[in-house]
Amino acid sequence: MKKYYIGADIGGTTVKMGLYSEEAGWVEKWEIPTRTEKSGAYILPDVADTIAQTCAGHGISMADVAGIGVGVPGPVLRNGTVNGCVNLGWGVVNVADVLGGLTNLPVYVANDANIAALGEQWKGAGSAYQSVVLLTLGTGVGGGVILDGRIVTGVVGGAGEVGHMPVFDHSEGACNCGKDNCLELAGSATGVLRDAKRRLAESDAPSAMRGIENLTAKDVCDCCAAGDTLAQACIRRTTDALGTAIASIGCVLNPEAFLFGGGMAAAGELLLEPIRKVYREKVFPPLRDTPVLRATLGNEAGITGGVRLVQVSQEK
Amino acid sequence: MKKYYIGADIGGTTVKMGLYSEEAGWVEKWEIPTRTEKSGAYILPDVADTIAQTCAGHGISMADVAGIGVGVPGPVLRNGTVNGCVNLGWGVVNVADVLGGLTNLPVYVANDANIAALGEQWKGAGSAYQSVVLLTLGTGVGGGVILDGRIVTGVVGGAGEVGHMPVFDHSEGACNCGKDNCLELAGSATGVLRDAKRRLAESDAPSAMRGIENLTAKDVCDCCAAGDTLAQACIRRTTDALGTAIASIGCVLNPEAFLFGGGMAAAGELLLEPIRKVYREKVFPPLRDTPVLRATLGNEAGITGGVRLVQVSQEK
After folding, report:
1. Does one domain contain both A134 and A251?
2. Of A120, A185, A218, A274, which sits most exposed with the smallest number of CB within 10 A?
């Protein structure tokens, strides 16, 4: 009986890692720098080395490790192939094959937002449910769809790309994806900040935001909470877009809960309460009571989901 | 080894039935009237009787029938309970238990649009795929989500209720569901007709539609095809809404194909070509090439999906 699991969440700056015991929970959580030079060629060897060292340090034989679950910041096909990760310097890499070869362990790979969703469904805000949709509000808007405790990947790894749902019927400026109508343009920290700056430039209305050097999305949230009219308009645009998006998702999947994570979600009820209100107004009425919750695992959602990905992949 | 399957598609007017042989395909397809009187109390006994008679007529023992797959026009919970079917006169009915008790056969139940989607995925326009989303354009807009060859039901049977996705940011009049922004208001025959009448009333522009008594949605499509400007505006509204909706669904699920069925889909490329164009403009760019196809099974999608529902339900 294999008793240990590894979760690895590969980001553009660090790789977050976790060693998990079936009986005792987390044995160790740690991180290493992500070496993106040479097209990211060192990343997976570094991961393999640190796993071997950490297991050895705890006196754990690799033979007792059931596998590694890896999240990567890009689309992942079902066979473990990553079709390009700009942030890591990768082109097409079969992470399952490469890391599996380096470690002699079974390796399962998923998109980072997808694997975070699995983590939240297993141990976080979604732990009472089998089917949840996570939206992560950060630099962009990512997401993951979990049905019956498993990640929905999509035919080319595009499931959960909720940040690019078309929620505007007019141009809201350029999204990184090349479109101009994406949820991400309103639901991300970047989108909130850009909108706040536009509003400040276009009007002479007084606003507490004008006095803030190096304005951030958090400042916009704070000013909104303090009653600043301009900041409130920014946040209303954001919560309208997010509430509409989950109403659409609700009519397609009818999940048990919606979860919001990522840096922006730290604003908590300031965002969630109006998102719930818009959701209830716009969703198919029998689905109005779906819980809309804040994700709880923060930066550990990815490694948690990595552990779970090994478990569900080996269930049958 | 059980060799036969029954598919039953219970509608407000008729119950469509099919007896299917593992080896030889359809043995018989038939229909009986739906008796909605007495709160629909006769419907399931009638279905049980006609199954017994038809099997007997073919010399088939009920012991050789693997089960019955039933589509019903309402939301269905996973345990086979139907939470009210207005068209049938039903309140809460556990169809699996009742029909199972009457026939001594395993009974599996799904929403009618969901089971039609399963039929199309198995034997129709989706037969090359495992994961498809069907939209049915009729009096309303229904739908079904098939992932990995199985129906996605949703926590209260609301998955696939794509007709109520909020695709308008303004009121488009009253939908049956109580909202005023639903896809159905533009994507259904009812919605097309209502929009055409409104445009005719609000303008003096010449239109071939003005000369048509008892205008239908098909007339609007025909006038559109003949170059009528007002009819073209109606259909553009419809295809804009449908293209936007599947672009949203694409960003959530990234299915292998989108299928369009129902009476309105008979207009074929007149609708599908502009829907594809809007989809490609609005979806996450890596997902632009998802096929958008016309469903092919017509009225037999439901009974076909019924047979398949028995098969997939008994697979493990």
Report:
1. yes
2. A218
